[in-house]
Amino acid sequence: MRELNRFKVIQAIADQGLAIWRAAERLGLSRRQVERLVLRYRAEHR
Asked: InterPro entries, alphabetically (predicted)?
């Protein structure tokens, strides 16, 4: 369930422009970690 939530948040950043700092707070991760996840998501889903 946690992975699904993480995916939805990363998807919201990439597709809807959710702020990275806000996503980092939600997920309990650093901003840099979230940036890496977004880069990986964009590479795999484009």
From this structure: Homeodomain-like_sf (IPR009057)
Query: What does each of the 46 residues of the chain score in pLDDT, given as a tens digit?
Result: 889 999 999 999 999 999 999 999 999 999 999 999 999 999 998 7
8 Å CB contact between 20 and 38: yes
Of 41, 36, 43, nearest to 16 (Cα)? Answer: 41
Position of tokens 């993480």? 6
Return the closest-CA partner of residue 27 out of 42, 13, 17, 41.
13
